[in-house]
Automatic annotation (TrEMBL), chain A:
Role noted for this protein: DNA-dependent RNA polymerase catalyzes the transcription of DNA into RNA using the four ribonucleoside triphosphates as substrates. Specific core component of RNA polymerase III which synthesizes small RNAs, such as 5S rRNA and tRNAs.
UniProt-annotated location(s): Nucleus
Gene (name only): LOC109469547
GO annotations of cellular component type: RNA polymerase III complex
The RNA polymerase III subunit RPC82-related helix-turn-helix domain, residue ranges: 11-65
GO biological process: DNA-templated transcription
Name by which UniProt lists this protein: DNA-directed RNA polymerase III subunit RPC3
TrEMBL record, chain B:
Organism: Branchiostoma belcheri
Biased segments, Basic residues type: 1-11
Descriptive protein name: DNA-directed RNA polymerase III subunit
Comp. bias intervals (Basic and acidic residues): 25-36, 145-156
Family of the protein in this entry: Belongs to the eukaryotic RPC7 RNA polymerase subunit family.
Main location per the UniProt record: nucleus
Domain of life: Eukaryota
């Protein structure tokens, strides 16, 4: 796994931040944490280059540093954050769907700069929008700020936690980090949209108080101690020292919820989907993000929070809830009878179901429907002997054997030996075939990383192969554009266009088509990666079948 | 039992009796493979077509735009220009335009960034460089007196700090020279002789830091030869 991750991470870094960053990144990803000097030695790069690369990585929140026992700073790269680069377009698109163009630009700016001050981002975004709009129109920076505050309120953006500072001793540094954690979503007062009227900093801290009860009193005390500090900073610049970055976890939570909702929608219907959506919204306040299961909520509570335009009667809701709870996807579980029935959402189970479904479709597409039948059979029955598989899948013995072994050799199916006698003689041993979903998803994830790496390097290969052609077409385009702006007539224009010969144009079109296809695959592969990734980290405790 | 007996063990590559596995004779065994699997195995099943639609297209456009803009961003660190075959006159001006290799091109929030990552500004570099020539000089002159040269160097630094005033173009040159330093002392000295600016600049310092050996023969001839060579 790690190897393919490092490879993919390296490729991504290379395309995003250049070769030097790639060298430093892969070195650290492969070897672990190192102080500055060792990185320079290990990568055989100049000191300044390494410094620059480290700065870039820290700026984009892909790196942590920590003082080791000898007092040297050690740098650690987070390879999974590097891998998020493939998901950047999705974050941006998500912000667009939720918060419109302003949200899109805000997230895009933050992603391309890693971390920024609120005033900076808002200024840049409003400039960009003003440029995009026609003359005379301009967008209010106030509006941009408002969207920014909205994004922070919904936790899509968060503050950059200040890492332990160089000078401070250890205990001091740790407390500093904690303080930051509490005010992760606090808008600096000076940047607030309307400070006197709505105070999002207060409301968001109040929200957090509800979220984690035992921390509640600490949070309540905190603002008093931190506010003079932030006031102090306000004096030289509106929000000096307060940097923001994109909260990937929140986006992932959103993606996860969307995936589950669309699954419910296609499995049952719109109403069931809306009910689950309501449950998710209720649980946002009571459950910590990315928890495997939500706190129980009563059907009464769900009913009260249902959107009014849905027009669902109470008894129908009850029916839907029983239906959802009895469904074998186990997304909704019944937790008790009180309050008209207590229900919880089991997100981990939901993810597992989604994961299973996508693994099944992988088997179907790779090995055909007969293999898929065997696979589903094994999933259902858990353990089967070869003979049983042949019988139950209703496939001729010889063929079934072949297909089963194929799945086995491709590691989709595992085998368990149960010897009847202690000598493990093959004739007196049961061979039970089964499926370990956890292991299969890990393997698939590894393959996805590999495939992603291959896609990127193929794209790069195509680009280098046709570099001359691409450069030529760029030049011709530039000439054509300048001619057009200077008001040239059509004959001149066509003359310029003829500089690219028909076969060349054909080749260009093909190249463009190929690259589009490759990039499209990257994006769609990332969806699978996301699903597998979000299923895997929480399920170490999964028992082996 | 299998391979241990001399008679039976010979001629058989397998060390166990294949009959225990249920095979009658060796011909039934699958052939062992002596070549790697093909690089592109034949596709049994065609891959499903990619999803299409407005969302997919928009995502694609976003991705391409983002990828394109990252290339131009200051975070994209271009590698130092690859080793030049010859030094061209035009290089100097291209370097000026791009401001290559100098600084980050963006300012990190130094409150949260480790201090050791700060790239030192031009000043200390320039100082070190301008000292260099005199170093070479004193080295030739007073071989074996390392301690003295160190001291002289320090003094030189102090004095030059007050004196040094180079314009931007000089900096670029020196920047390049910095790189070449690693290549060896020999080249270093040659460079130094080539560049008149620096020689003039340090001339004063050199004669000033005459370590006293010329004290006795202070006639004109000796001065013309210079203490350096």
């Amino acid at each position: 796994m790690a190897q393919t991750q490092v490879r993919l991470g390296g490729l991504l870094l290379q395309h995003q931040y250049g070769e030097i960053v790639e060298n430093v990144g892969t070195f650290l990803a492969a070897k672990g944490s190192f102080p500055l000097k060792d990185i320079a030695d290990g990568t055989k790069l100049g000191m300044n280059e390494v410094k620059k690369a480290l700065c870039v990585l820290i700026q984009h929140n892909m790196m942590d540093f920590e003082r080791n026992r000898r007092g040297l700073l050690e740098y650690t790269i987070h390879i999974n954050k590097v891998l998020h680069i493939t998901r950047y377009p999705r974050y941006i698109y998500c912000a667009k769907t939720l918060y419109g163009d302003v949200g899109e630009f805000l997230v895009e700016e933050l992603l391309s700069h890693g971390q920024m001050m609120m005033s900076q981002v808002c200024r840049r975004v409003s400039e960009r929008i003003t440029q995009a709009l026609e003359e005379g129109q301009s967008v209010d920076e106030f509006q941009v700020r408002k969207t920014f505050v909205d994004l922070v309120k919904t936790h899509f953006l968060q503050r950059v936690a200040a890492p332990p500072s160089d000078s401070g001793d250890k205990t001091d540094a740790e407390t500093e980090l904690q303080v930051k954690e509490k005010e992760m979503f606090l808008i600096p007062p000076a940047m607030d949209v309307d400070y006197s009227k709505v105070n999002p900093s207060v409301s968001s801290s109040g929200k957090r108080k509800r979220e984690d009860g035992e921390e509640g009193d600490k949070v309540a005390k905190r603002p008093r101690s931190t506010s003079p500090l932030s006031d102090e900073k306000n004096e030289d610049a509106p929000d000096k020292g307060v940097y923001w970055h994109v909260n990937f976890t929140r986006f992932h939570q959103f993606f996860r919820d969307q995936a589950v909702l669309s699954a419910v929608n296609s499995k049952m219907d719109r109403y069931a989907c809306e009910i689950v959506r309501t449950m998710l919204r209720i649980s946002e306040k009571t459950t910590v993000p990315l928890a495997p299961t939500t706190q129980p909520m009563s059907s009464h509570e769900i009913f009260q929070n249902l959107p009014s335009e849905l027009d669902l009667s109470r008894s129908t809701l009850g029916e839907y809830l029983t239906l959802l709870a009895e469904d074998k996807t186990e997304i909704v579980n019944k937790a008790g009878e009180s309050g008209g029935g207590m229900y919880i959402l089991n997100m981990q189970k939901a993810l597992q179901t989604l994961c299973k479904a996508s693994i099944e479709s992988v088997v179907q597409e790779r090995f055909g429907s007969k293999c898929s039948r065997i696979f589903r059979l094994l999933l259902m029955k858990r353990h089967l002997e070869q003979k049983q598989v042949e019988d139950m899948a209703m496939i001729p013995a010889k063929e079934a054997k072949e297909l089963l072994y194929k799945l086995f050799s491709e590691n989709f199916v595992t085998m368990q030996e149960i010897p009847k006698t202690p000598d493990h003689a093959p004739s007196r041993t049961f061979y039970l075939f089964g499926i370990n979903i956890h292991q299969v998803s890990r393997m698939l994830l590894d393959r996805c990383y590999k495939a992603m790496g291959n896609l990127i390097s193929r794209r790069e290969h195509e680009n280098t192969e046709n570099r001359r052609l691409l450069e030529k077409s760029q030049r011709v385009d530039a000439i054509a554009a300048s001619l057009q702006s200077s008001g040239a007539d059509t004959t001149q224009m066509s003359e310029v266009e003829e500089m690219i010969t028909p076969p060349e144009r054909q080749q260009l079109n093909k190249l463009k088509h190929d690259i589009n296809k490759l990039e499209q695959s990257e994006l769609q592969l990332d969806e699978t990666i996301f699903l597998l990734e979000s299923y895997l980290p929480g399920s170490e405790a999964m028992v082996m079948y | 039992m299998g391979g241990r007996g001399r008679g039976r063990g010979r001629g058989k590559p397998l060390s166990f009796d294949i009959e225990t596995l249920g095979f009658q004779n060796r011909k039934e065994l699958p052939q062992s493979k002596d070549e790697p699997p093909p690089l592109y195995p034949p596709l049994e099943f065609k891959p499903v077509p990619l999803q299409e639609g407005e969302e997919a297209n928009y995502l694609l456009a976003l991705k391409q735009e983002f990828r394109g803009s990252m290339r131009e961003s200051p975070y994209f660190i271009k590698p130092q220009s690859t080793k030049k075959d010859i030094e061209r006159y035009s290089d100097k001006y291209q370097l000026n335009g791009q401001n290559k290799g100098q600084g980050l091109g963006w300012t990190p929030n130094w409150n949260t960034f480790p201090k050791e990552l700060r790239i030192r500004e031009k000043k200390p570099k320039r100082l070190k460089l301008s000292v260099k020539p005199s170093l070479a000089g004193t080295k030739l002159k007073a071989k074996g007196q390392k301690g003295d040269t160190k001291e002289a160097e320090n003094k030189l630094k102090r004095i030059l700090q007050a004196e040094e005033e180079g314009d931007e173009d000089d900096d670029e040159d020196e920047e390049e020279k910095k790189k070449k330093e690693a290549e060896g002392e020999e080249e270093e000295e040659e460079e130094f002789y080539d560049d008149e600016d620096i020689e003039e600049g340090t001339d004063y310092a050199l004669s000033y830091f005459d370590n006293g050996e010329d004290y006795l023969d202070a006639d004109d001839d000796a001065l013309e030869d210079g203490p350096v060579y």
